[in-house]
Design goal:
The protein is α/β, with parallel strands linked by helices and 625 residues long. The protein is 51% helix and 9% strand. It has a five-stranded mixed sheet. A four-stranded antiparallel sheet has the order 4-5-3-6. The chain has a two-stranded antiparallel ribbon with strand order 1-2. Strand 10, helix 21 and strand 11 form a beta-alpha-beta unit.
Length: 625
C-alpha cells in the first residue's frame, strides 16, 4: 500500500518497541548461544517470535574465547605450507620444552599442571601455515618478574608488528601468578632462579653442548633407510627420552637472549638515540664462534681447494649442478671427494626450509652443495679473511662511536649489557643449530618409516608419511588409531592442502570461539610495499650496513634458479639453510623477519648489507631489475 507522505519519514517502531525487540534478540541468542537470524511480528501491540535460525554468514562471537595468532617470527622456520607431520612434531616439541622451562625456574608442579593447556598449545595451523598462539606466549612470559618490560622484549625477539594491549595483558596471566601476595612471592623466587642462570649460563650451555654431541653422534651414525618401521620408532622414542628431556639450557638461554637484547635496545634508544639507527646491530657484528655459519665457511674452503686444483673449476662449472656429484665420484679428484663426503656427514641435514621434515636434505640430494660451490667459483669470493675483516671493521667503527658518545658509569653499564647480549645471541645460534641437527635425524627416521610403510602397502608412496600427524604415526605403532585406512586419510589431506595453496592468510589475526569456523583469518594485503613517492624508497629494518647497487634476483623457494653471481637477493623469508648462498651476494632483502632472525644475525657475521621486514616488496621486484 502507498504510505501517506506524513508517515514516510516516521520510524515503524517507537523507542519502547525497539527496546523490547533488542531484549528479545538477546534472549534468543543467549538461549541458542549463537548469533541468530530472527523473524518477528506484532499482534495486539505485543512482539511475537515467528522464527529463529543460526546466522549462516561467518560471524565471530565476541563472547567466545579470544585468540591472537601471529607468524611474524615463526615464518622464518616454517614459511609457506607445512605438512601435518612437521606441524604436529613442532607442536609436541614446543610443549615438552616449555614444561622443562617452568620446572627449572621452580614453578610448582601443581601450577605446571594448571598451565598444561597453555604449554600444549603454543602453536596453531591455518591453511597449512604455522602460527604462534600469541596469548599463550605472553602467559608463559608472565611467570617471570617484570612482565611489563619482558613482554616488550619478547615482541622485539619475535618481530611482532603490534604490542599487546594493557587490558588484555592484565587478564592473561596464569591463575597462580596473578596479583595475590603469594603469587608475588612466587614470582620473586622464580626471578631469583632465573638470575642464577644468568651468572652460570655459559657453563650450563657448554655442558649441554657436550652432552648433546655425545648422544647426537650415536643417532646420526645409524642408517634408518634399512630398518623396519617399528625398529625406527623405538630409536625415535629413545631419542626423545635422552635429548628432548634435556633441552633446559637452550630454552633458558633463549629467554636470557630476549632480556639482554631487549635491554641493550632500550639503552641504545635512551642514551645513543641520536646516532645511526643501525648502531646496535653493528655492535653485534663479528660475534664469532657461530656454529650455524661454520657449514658456509667449510664450503668456501672447498671452493678455494677446487679453484687451485687444475681441471676442477671446469668440471664444476661445465656440469649441471644435479650431475656434479656423480661426475666428481667418477673423477680422480680424491681430496675434494673426501671433503664433500665429510661435509655431508657433518652437515647433510642442512637444506633450505630445513625445519620442514618433508624437505629434501643433502643426504638425499647433494645438488645444493654444488650450486654453492659453482656460485663461489663464479664470484671469486674464496677468502674467509675478507669476511672476517669486513665484520671487524663494522664492529670496530660502532664501538668507537659508543666510546665517543658515552662516558662514566653509562659507558660501563652499556658495555656490560653489550657483553651479555653478544654472549646470549651467540649461545642462541649455537643451541639452535643443535635443534637443526635433531630435525635432520628425525627427518631420516620418518623417511625410513615412510619407506617401510610404502613397501608394506600401508601408504601409497614413502613421502605420504608427511601427510599424517605424529599422533597417527605413533598410533600406527602402539594400536591407538581409530581408523586404519591411512591411504584414504592421505588422499583427503592432499586434496585439502592443495586448496590451501590458493589462500594466503594474514600474518596476524584474531579469532573468537572455535577458531576455524565463523572466524575470518584475513588475507595478506594486496597492496605493494608502501613507497615514499618523494625519495622513491621502501623502509624496513636495517640489519647490516652498506651501500650496494646491482641487479636483483628474486628467489621464492629451493626449487627456483639458485645460480648467483653478486646479485642482490630478494626472498620472502629465509632460514639458516639459505646461509650458504650469502657469499655469492652483494646484498640481501627479506620481506619477513626481525633483528634476531637468522638472516639478520648471520648477515651481520658475514658483513653482508641486509634489510629485513620489507613487507610487500615482493610485489614490486622482479628478477633482473
Amino acid at each position: 500500500r502507498a504510505v501517506p507522505m506524513d508517515l514516510q519519514e516516521t520510524p515503524v517502531l517507537n523507542a519502547d518497541e525497539l527496546k523490547s525487540l533488542a531484549r528479545l534478540g538477546r534472549k534468543v541468542e543467549a538461549f541458542y548461544q549463537y548469533p541468530q537470524d530472527i523473524e518477528w511480528g506484532e499482534r495486539n501491540g505485543e512482539l511475537v517470535l515467528l522464527q529463529s535460525r543460526p546466522v549462516t554468514t561467518p560471524m565471530a562471537d565476541p563472547a567466545g574465547k579470544l585468540f591472537i595468532w601471529d607468524n611474524s617470527n615463526i615464518v622464518e622456520s616454517y614459511g609457506g605450507i607445512t605438512l601435518p607431520l612437521t606441524f604436529t612434531w613442532a607442536r609436541f616439541v614446543y610443549g615438552r620444552v616449555y614444561v622443562q622451562f617452568c620446572e627449572i625456574l621452580g614453578v610448582p608442579a601443581v601450577e605446571i599442571r594448571r598451565m598444561d593447556p597453555t604449554l600444549r598449545n603454543m602453536l596453531g595451523s591455518f591453511h597449512g601455515r604455522i602460527y604462534y598462539n600469541l596469548l599463550n606466549w605472553y602467559r608463559l612470559t608472565s611467570i617471570l618478574p617484570g612482565f611489563k618490560y619482558n613482554r616488550g622484549f619478547m615482541e622485539t625477539m619475535m618481530g611482532t608488528d603490534e604490542s599487546l594491549a594493557d587490558e588484555i595483558a592484565e587478564r592473561i596471566q596464569p591463575s597462580g601468578f596473578q596479583g595475590k601476595l603469594s603469587s608475588k612471592v612466587r614470582r620473586f623466587f622464580t626471578g631469583l632462579k632465573f638470575l642464577g642462570y644468568h651468572f652460570r649460563i655459559q657453563s650450563f650451555v657448554d655442558d649441554f653442548l657436550k652432552y648433546f654431541h655425545t648422544v647426537y653422534d650415536e643417532f646420526r651414525a645409524r642408517d634408518y633407510s634399512r630398518m623396519r618401521a617399528d625398529e625406527i620408532h623405538g630409536h625415535f622414542e629413545d631419542l626423545l627420552a635422552r635429548l628432548l628431556t634435556e633441552w633446559k639450557a637452550p630454552i633458558v638461554n633463549d629467554y636470557l637472549c630476549m632480556v639482554h637484547f631487549g635491554l641493550l635496545k632500550k639503552l641504545t634508544q635512551k642514551w645513543l638515540g641520536n646516532l645511526d639507527d643501525s648502531l646496535q646491530n653493528d655492535l653485534m657484528c663479528g660475534n664469532g664462534n657461530l656454529e650455524s655459519a661454520e657449514p658456509t665457511r667449510a664450503l668456501i674452503r672447498m671452493a678455494a681447494l677446487a679453484n687451485r686444483t687444475e681441471g676442477l673449476p671446469g668440471l664444476l662449472k661445465n656440469t649441471l649442478a644435479a650431475d656434479c656429484h656423480e661426475a666428481l665420484q667418477q673423477s680422480g679428484f680424491d681430496e675434494l671427494k673426501a671433503r664433500v663426503a665429510d661435509y655431508i656427514s657433518k652437515y647433510g641435514f642442512r637444506c633450505m626450509n630445513e625445519m620442514k621434515l618433508e624437505e629434501t636434505d643433502l643426504h638425499q640430494d647433494p645438488t645444493f652443495l654444488y650450486v654453492c660451490l659453482r656460485n663461489y667459483l663464479r664470484t671469486g669470493e674464496l677468502e674467509l679473511e675478507k669476511y672476517d675483516q669486513r665484520e671487524l671493521e663494522i664492529r670496530t667503527r660502532a664501538e668507537a662511536q659508543v666510546r665517543e658518545h658515552l662516558g662514566g658509569w653509562r659507558y660501563w653499564v652499556y658495555r656490560w649489557s653489550l657483553k651479555h647480549a653478544r654472549k646470549a645471541v651467540r649461545n642462541r645460534e649455537n643451541t639452535r643449530f643443535c635443534r637443526t641437527r635433531i630435525y635432520g635425524v628425525v627427518r631420516a627416521m620418518f623417511n625410513g618409516i615412510g619407506n617401510d610403510f610404502a613397501a608394506r602397502g600401508i601408504l601409497q608412496q614413502s613421502e605420504d608419511i608427511f601427510f599424517i600427524t605424529l599422533e597417527e604415526l605413533n598410533g600406527a605403532m602402539t594400536a591407538h588409531l581409530t581408523g586404519q585406512d591411512l591411504k584414504a586419510l592421505v588422499r583427503q589431506r592432499k586434496t585439502e592442502y592443495a586448496a590451501y595453496d590458493t589462500v594466503e592468510p594474514a600474518s596476524r589475526f584474531i579469532t573468537h570461539g572455535p577458531v576455524y569456523w565463523q572466524n575470518t583469518h584475513g588475507a595478506e594485503e594486496e597492496s605493494a610495499a608502501e613507497l615514499d613517492e618523494i625519495t622513491n624508497t621502501v623502509q624496513g629494518l636495517g640489519c647490516c650496513p652498506g651501500v650496494v647497487e646491482g641487479v636483483v634476483k628474486c628467489v621464492q623457494s629451493p626449487r627456483d634458479d639458485l645460480d648467483l653471481n653478486g646479485e642482490i637477493l630478494f626472498a620472502p623469508r629465509t632460514d639458516p639453510g639459505w646461509i650458504p648462498l650469502y657469499p655469492s651476494l652483494s646484498g640481501l632483502l627479506v620481506e619477513r623477519g626481525g633483528l634476531l632472525s637468522h638472516s639478520a644475525i648471520v648477515a651481520r657475521e658475514m658483513g653482508l648489507p641486509t634489510v629485513v621486514g620489507l613487507k610487500g616488496l615482493g610485489r614490486r621486484l622482479r628478477t633482473g631489475m
